[in-house]
Design a protein that fits this description.
four-stranded antiparallel β-sheet, mainly beta, 8 strands
Length: about 130
Amino acid sequence: MATEKKTTKKVEKKIETKEVVESGSKFAVIKLAGVQLKVSEGKEYEVNKLSGNKGDKLEIKDVLLVADGEKIQIGKPLVDGAVVKLEITSQFKGDKIKGLIYKAKSRSRRRYGYRADLTKVLVKKIS
């Protein structure tokens, strides 16, 4: 019996992920409700609950980065004079997260559920 030798070639593919900044596209990275968020003008985002009612306007001065086409401003840690204007469009609860704690042999079981309070905001202007 002849032994067959299987040859396998390991193929490595380098995947480069580059985000193309289109000319005229404007975005910013802000710190809001404990998270960093990349926002663009005219788009809506869901964030952790913010105090305020529907229709209230907010000015966020914790701006970490502003990009306008080829012009990019990076803050150390914040960009001086940069402001992002938001409008609260709704306050709601998110999807229910169900959980179960089970301990073997002790007949211990506990079920729980959680719905996060969320706020939907609309980005009005980045300046």
